[in-house]
Amino acid sequence: MICEKENLKNDVQNNSIDLLLVEDNPINQKLFAYYFKEYLVSYDVVSDGFEAIEKLRKQKYKLILLDIELPIKDGYNTAQEIREVLNIDTPIVAITSHEIDEVKDQCFETGMDACFSKPISKLELVAVLSQFLPQEIFTQAASKQQKINKVPEYRTIDFDYLKQISMGDKVFEKRLTEQFCEKISENLNKLDECLVNENVAELKFVAHQMHSTIFIMGMRSKLGAHLDAIERKALNFEQLKARVGIISLVCKRARDEAREFLASAG
């Protein structure tokens, strides 16, 4: 077992592909492929956990999208083998038809980094890709397919980044910004509830969920460290309150800017 761990990383090819999709449903495979091609994301597709393990022995990836409900070898067992046997630390994002709250604990326990639910939403998928894949991928896609239109500068949200991932799709930009406003309001309410109830475990989970929300609007540099601290560090309650205060302030400014953007977009 130890020898396998030591040798695998040397055997894997140096030239990595962006993404490995592990999904047994042909319709979902085609839908994912459509989105990947739109954003010039290189990818491989396999239909079960055994195929995924064999692929990962030979090829390096930047991200793994892993369906939990796979035949024969499910996503949990596959993720655990990727972490414990292959010793690969590539981010793994779970895909599930269940409610997130029903599976999140087991996903994290078996080594996955995030999860999202079916049916597949382009908005949510792009949020995941933008969080776990290098930003250069989206910049490259945008430069090949359009000249990015400049928007007024804002202090909190990076709308140039939004323009890059939208590739000129105005409807997509508007829907994503509307969704951001709704989601950030929901997140802020949950943060407040967690503090009132002193529910630290739920607070950490909300912080984890917020990563995708802020990444899609180019806010990684402003809030990433604070969310990571809440999620991963052993902070006392006063320290948690202070971090939440900063996050709330920045998110409210971002929400105001997003609403201003929507008003100007018409």
What's the helix and strand layout?
Elements: H1 2-11, E1 17-22, H2 26-38, E2 43-46, H3 49-58, E3 61-67, H4 75-84, E4 92-96, H5 100-109, E5 114-117, H6 122-132, H7 135-145, H8 159-166, H9 170-197, H10 200-216, H11 220-232, H12 237-265
Parallel strand pairs: 1-2, 1-3, 3-4, 4-5
Helix pairs in contact: 3-4, 6-10, 7-8, 9-10, 9-12, 10-11, 11-12
Uncertain segments: 1-14
Average pLDDT figure = 83
Q: What class, by secondary structure content?
A: alpha/beta
* Molecular shape: globular
Quote the beta fraction.
5-15%
Helix content: 55-70%
Q: Order the strands across the largest sheet as they lie in space.
A: 2-1-3-4-5
List the total number of helices: 12
What is the CA-atom radius of gyration, in angstroms?
19 Å
Order of helices and strands: HEHEHEHEHEHHHHHHH
Mind describing the biggest β-sheet? Answer: 5 strands, parallel
Summarize the structure in words:
- The protein has 266 residues and is α/β, with parallel strands linked by helices.
- It has 2 domains: 2-120, Response regulator (Rossmann fold), CATH 3.40.50.2300; 136-265, no CATH class.
- It is 64% helix and 10% strand.
- It contains 12 helices and 5 strands.
- The chain has helices at residues 2-11, 26-38, 49-58, 75-84, 100-109, 122-132, 135-145, 159-166, 170-197, 200-216, 220-232, 237-265; strands at residues 17-22, 43-46, 61-67, 92-96, 114-117.
- The chain has a 5-stranded parallel beta sheet, with helices on both faces.
- Strand 4 (92-96), helix 5 (100-109) and strand 5 (114-117) form a beta-alpha-beta unit.
- Helix 10 packs antiparallel against helix 11 (220-232).
- The longest helix has 29 residues, at 237-265.
- It is globular, with a radius of gyration of 19 Å.
- The N and C termini lie far apart (60 Å).
- Mean pLDDT is 83; it is low at 1-14.
